[in-house]
Amino acid sequence: MDDTPATSAAKAATALRIAEAARAAAVERPRPLPAWYPAANGLLFAAGFTLIGLQWVVATAPWQLTAGCQLAGAVLLVVQCFLAQRVERRPGIIQTVPRFISGRGLATAYLASLALAAALFLVSGPAGLFITLGVSCGLVNWLLLHRERVMAGAK
Q: Are 27 and 114 in contact (CB under 8 A)?
């Protein structure tokens, strides 16, 4: 005699279908990055930090201009994060590290950018930090994502 309630069996069957769908999605080849995405990611990152850093370059600017630059920079960085989440997300996975580069190569690329930004911070203050950080890390993002796109297409 079957003493399992019908609702428990239905829930178990639903859970099994969901697990099978998740497994199939994880096994399938991830969709490639769109051609426009590496450039958009790098440029949004660079422009966002550059706009935030401009407040120290033009110290005599009215507060409305500096507030506008800060707000525009923050909006660009939020758009960059939103695009990264929407474009790079695969079913069940939010990719944080590119698949086709070693951890050491990734650390070297970003540490070189951070060292350059720190050196310019010592020379020109916060403006040098934010602008250099934005441009150099934006360029690193662009190059890494372009490489990932090319390598995924060659696979």
A: no
Contact 140, 113 (CB under 8 A): yes
- Categorise residue 92: left if φ over 0, alpha if ψ from -120 to 50, beta otherwise: left
**Global confidence as pTM:** 0.74
For tokens 């010592």, what's the residue?
A: 122
Task: Give the residues across from 93 on adjacent strands.
Answer: 90
What is the rounded CA–CA span in Å between residue 83 and residue 43? 12
pLDDT band per the 50, 70, 90 thresholds, residue 78: very high
Picking from 77, 72, 91, the residue whose alpha carbon sits closest to that of residue 141 is 77
In the DSSP assignment, the letter for residue 7 is H
How many alpha carbons lie under 13 Å from residue 152 in its C-beta half-sphere? Answer: 16
